[in-house]
Fold these 2 entries.
Entry 1:
Amino acid sequence: MNAVATNATVGTEITRPSEKDLLSGILAEEAFEDIDCSVRQKAIRQDNKAYKAQRPLARGYPVFILLSKYEPISITTAMTEIELLNAFLALIYCHAILWSIGIEHGDISEGNLMFDDVNKKPKLCDFDLSHVRGRDHPSGYSNTGTWAFMAMELLTIDAMNGEVARLYRHDFESFIAVLIWVVFRYRDGKLVSDPPLWLVEWAQLNRYICCAANRKHTFDHIRKGSLAGPTSLSPAMWKVIRGAVTDLQRCINRCEGLAIDIRMMEWAARNRGPDEGEPRTVNKRRKPAPEGHSLAKLKEELKGYDGLVFLDKVLDMWLLSFDGSHGSLFAELLDTHIEDLKTPTGSQS
């Protein structure tokens, strides 16, 4: 493991010498190839008497910060396909467990998914934009993230105005977006010389609506089979990824349809005539909700897509379809630790 130790002062002084004179004394950097207890004990100051004598007016003391060095998630493209898949499954599992206890990461992106090359485990990093569910936001709903990977539903005017609640499926969609991004942009852990131009279109500066439209265009082509997988992947592995995108798109479309039906039924309920019969105006172009689908049932089904049960709806097949996948193990762990998955809500579709 590689690490960086930084020794810096915290606080201010009543009288402050020039930064030029102090810089060599308050900043130091040393790289350790092997970090063990003896190194930590030696590096962390246990007695500040000498420091106090040298700088009696200092209000702060040196702080020792030890940071592990992780590799970018793109390094998984230098591994076997099953190791790449299992790394993403482990990250999805970790994120789901955190979500189940109220910790919403809020920025699933290439830069925040990393890999420990020593213990061969992926890491979910950077919780600077995370949110603890139940605590008030400054205004509206949280809409953090990196545009190239954010859920398409969050790349809308309403969402940017804080009017769209962040749901579990939004972060999950970001995982799939990062997976597609990584396998097309990297080979053997290195950036390919000619990455697809459509990936660049995912990251339109100052044009978030275009980011969403371009990614949907990519996902549609993957689902229809008109976009071939990268040459570095086997047809079997690409089939697994294509299946994940297909199920994700199917569920997104179902959510959109349910939301429209719910709005129409609520609108109809508000606009019924005095006789409580038909609505005052009827949209003849819109098919009515299927018979037996009450407003309550539609809301219950949509709720099933909004929470962690979404995992069952999307991952069921591709978790288990690749030989050597840890999908079944993660599925059992999720069922064990997440209450929502023990008693799923909403109809399974």
Entry 2:
Amino acid sequence: MRRFLPLLIAFLAQNAAADGCPVAPDHSVAVDNIYTELQLAPNQMVARPYSNQLWELWLEAPDMPSQMMLDEGLRAMRGGDLIRAVDRLNALVSYCPFYAEGYNQRAFANFLREDYQAALPDLDQAISLNPRHTGALTGKARTLIELGEDDEAQVILKKALALNPWLGERALLR
């Protein structure tokens, strides 16, 4: 029992800090398999379904309230209401501070608003929570390019392409 007590305390502390949001689903085995398939894919057409599978996993929020906030933010972005999108995604990251996709989508909404300075910290947080999130990595590379930080963008872009060589952003590689 003593050896499980620190794990229990850490788990409870994480959940308490997340204001009721449970830990995001662990898709690490599926993600590992998808990245293996992406490495083996002979072309972009074969790779595309695997990339789509990654997005399906990343867009699976930890619980129903967080999924609703994410879906509302995505709908607002698709409808061009970027202020509403940021508002819903603000609520999501407040509720689920350990869910990488909340930060990634808020960064994307700010990128679309051309508020690159606001996007960058969210991308860093998404990458911190999920270092192999190629969407956040390419988002950071694109944001850095917009900010004129091309050398740093190239480093990040190479990290993303090492995971998925078929990303559309490969055209940005120098």
